[in-house]
Structures are given as structure tokens and as C-alpha cells.
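Problem 12. The chain below contains 204 residues. Write out its predicted structure in C-alpha cell notation.
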Amino acid sequence: MTRDTADDAAANAADGTDAYAADDAAEADAGAGPAPGGRRLPDVRYAEQARERLAVLAPAADPGDFALGYHLLHLAYMLVTDLESHVHRPRGWTVPGFRVMFKLWVLGPTRPSRLAELSVMSRSALTNAVNTLARADLVERRQAPGDRRGVVIALTERGRTAVAEAFAAHAARESAWFADLSPTERDQLTALLGRLVATRPTAS
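Solution.
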């Protein structure tokens, strides 16, 4: 990757047109290492170059916050892409679809509003996901107990079997991703990420 490529990406990040972009040039650089499944890890040199340029382009920005946000977003992008391509797409659904089924597996029949909240999805996105899963006979809509006009979403028998099998593969793939961390490091990272989620900024 050339310095010009890094400069362009940094400039884009600074003006918001390509915030923390996971660009192909960075992933293809010879310094990047392989991720599970053959994907290349983000090039740390790219992040360092972008951080240096942002000191000039956006001096008010905190370089540490930029680096943390860059790596978190890049990791999330790669992890979701990897899980989807190796575990979920071959089974005919997406990672969001799996998240819906997993919550139904754990909680049992759930009202759509609660399911959307727990899945961090809009109602329309949840409806689309449920419709897709229902066509595959993985979930179904039922009348809510004690509420003739209420509806809950539930796994079908086929859905329960499918999500149990998928979870085993999903968990094994996650273990491969996190294998480089010691149990203590994993627990520390989990706690820190949980704190960030709990203290996230509210809408202004």
C-alpha cells in the first residue's frame, strides 16, 4: 500500500466520507496477516499512517480514539463477514437471522417489539428477517397467550434443530478467532467492551 493511498483514506476519514473504512488496499498489503478462513487482517501500518495524517488534517481529533474505533470497526466487519460466509450463508440465512433465532432459542416465543430491541434491529428489519426465516419454516408467528390480538415469534421444530447445529459451528468459529487471547485477556476485553456498550452516548 502506498503512502498516497493511506493519505487518501485518512482524508476521507477526516471529512466523514469514508469513516474508518476497511478498504481492500489495506487488507491486501503484504504486512497484513491471515484471519480464520483466509481473510487478511487489517494492516496496522495503515492505521498508524492514517493516525499520523489525522494529526495534520484534524488536529482536534483524539488519535487514540481514532485507533480504537478503527480497529473495533475493522474487527467487527471481518468477524461478521467470516461468520456469515463460513457458518450462516451455507445454511441459508444471515448473521442477523441467526441472532433472531438464537434469541428465540434462549427466550422462547417473544413479542416482535422485544425481539427487535434485543436484536438491535428496527421493526422493519426484524419483519424482513422473520419473513425470510418463516419462508424456510424456521420461525412462525403465533397468537400471544392471553391476548387475542397480540403476536409472538417462535421457532419451529425445524428451527430449533437448525439453530442448535448452527450455534455449535458459530461457537467453534468464534473460538478460532479468539484463540490468541489468554482466558484473562479475553475476560478483560469482554468486560471493557461491555462497559462501552453500557455507557454508550445517548442521541443528542
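Discussion. The longest strand covers residues 139-143. Students who got a different answer should revisit the alignment rule from Section 12.3.
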